[in-house]
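name: query_chain
kind: protein
chains: 1
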Amino acid sequence: MAEEVKVERNQNYITLSLNRPEKRNAINRAVIEALDAALVSIEADADVRAVVIRGEGRGFCSGLDLRDIEQMGAGGLTFEKVIARVQKLPVPTVAAVHGDALTGGLVLALSCDLRIAGEGARLGMTPARIGYLPTYWIFRKFVETVGPANTAEIMYLADPVDANRAREMGLVHKVVPDDSLASGAAKWAATIAGNAPLSVRAMKQMIARVTSTAFEVEHQDLDELGNKVRTSQDAREGVRAFLEKRKPVWRGQ
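structure:
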């Protein structure tokens, strides 16, 4: 297993730790590949009954590594495919969020079934700051989880919210002191793992099926709009400005 993701077995649940603390656990190609390999292993292990996802260092995950963004946009294994794999795991997943969970990091947390956050956590989506646009699925997941009004606040303002505001929105299920986060997530995982495994796995399938078409609409035009935004001059300028630590110059092109 690649060192970018630590895998720890705790009786009948697994803890996956993003391990790029010097980069605030920004997701690059190596992290994507390590996460995917870990998830494949979990899928094949009938003794695993829950999964905790967390981050090493000062934060959960600061999002995609923009210096690696072009590589991530290429074919093959992508962040979107790994996120889909997280969602489709047969067992419940718990995101233990501390520090920053931004953009791709928040998407990863939102892909988990349960989210517990430390008091010092900050959660946000910042694509509007760099002229980018999340995919239709991401918007659907946010609206499904926190409703259209809160989704609008998160997306339009692009300002991270603190843990308590995230709890008010329904973005996280529980807020605990930072030094209790690890034990809180472990308790949830152990509780889930102690319940009847066939029941829990079936419950996850039930929830997924109930919501599978509730928010589904024709969105080919939105996909085309998204591609237009993501390949725009503004999007390229936004990434350059972020990497150069300057304010972008928007031209609406």
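note: The mean pLDDT is 93.
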